[in-house]
Task: inverse folding
């Protein structure tokens, strides 16, 4: 008879990293800062002759604005549209929480599209560079989710489980850690390996879209659906629906690249 071993960890991590009188520095804010800094350090190492140092700094500014605006608006539109429709001022209260990766990604793409036009650069060259840096930000972001005890996993009945007392007392999958490894570490290693093997502009962007879309579809099975949305079409969560679109977009982009003469697809 197979006996399933269940190990529990009770989550008591403090989301506040440092308190300075009435002010506090939270791990989530630090994770965003460290993730962005690591991402652009990686981009700086591999940018070669695509960007000057000044252009890289400008791209960083455009991208950060895209992450913040896109991430917030994406959350408001995709995850809680009815609430923000009736409480529009809450859109600006980012300290109440609520950011969407998919919205942030759209924001980064839009911001860099504007930057590419302004600097007469290839958008795909920029998105390829950004793709190399994004796994670092994803890794630190998911670790921060775990420290905060948010985006918890579904109820766990085997293996290593975590109890989040601020959520409930049921053992749950540490889905944030799964995503940190799958979306961050493994994706980073994959892109590092492909860097020397793929030379066609845009392919790294397509691989990023396909891999992230696929791994998020898989790992979201361990994550509790958003309470205000629950399960949507075919029992998928909102994150899975958006990731399916992302996966399709990656395949579509790759098909355009391979069907077109080199560097002739206009971006």
Result:
């Amino acid at each position: 008879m197979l006996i399933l071993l269940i190990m529990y960890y009770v989550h008591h991590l403090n989301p506040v990293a440092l308190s300075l009188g009435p002010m506090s520095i939270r791990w989530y804010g630090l994770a965003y800062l460290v993730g962005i800094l690591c991402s652009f350090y990686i981009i700086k190492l591999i940018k070669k002759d695509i960007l000057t140092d000044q252009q890289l700094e400008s791209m960083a500014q455009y991208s950060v604005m895209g992450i913040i605006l896109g991430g917030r608006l994406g959350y408001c539109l995709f995850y809680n549209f009815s609430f923000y429709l009736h409480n529009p001022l809450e859109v600006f209260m980012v300290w109440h929480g609520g950011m969407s990766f998919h919205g942030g990604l759209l924001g980064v793409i839009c911001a860099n599209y504007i930057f590419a036009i302004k600097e007469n650069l290839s958008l795909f060259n920029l998105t390829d560079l950004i793709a190399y840096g994004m796994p670092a930000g994803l890794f630190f972001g998911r670790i921060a989710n775990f420290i905060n005890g948010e985006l918890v996993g579904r109820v766990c009945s085997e293996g290593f489980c975590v109890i989040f007392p601020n959520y409930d007392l049921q053992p749950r999958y540490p889905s944030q850690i799964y995503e940190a490894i799958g979306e961050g570490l493994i994706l980073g290693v994959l892109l590092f390996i492909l860097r020397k093997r793929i030379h066609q502009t845009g392919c790294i962007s397509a691989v990023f879209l396909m891999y992230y879309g696929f791994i998020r579809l898989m790992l979201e099975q361990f994550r509790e659906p958003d309470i205000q949305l629950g399960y949507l079409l075919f029992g998928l969560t909102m994150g899975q629906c958006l990731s399916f679109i992302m996966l399709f977009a990656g395949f579509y982009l790759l098909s355009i690249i391979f069907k077109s003469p080199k560097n002739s697809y206009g971006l």
Remarks:
- Helices lie at 27-46, 53-78, 81-86, 101-119, 123-148, 175-195, 203-219, 238-259.
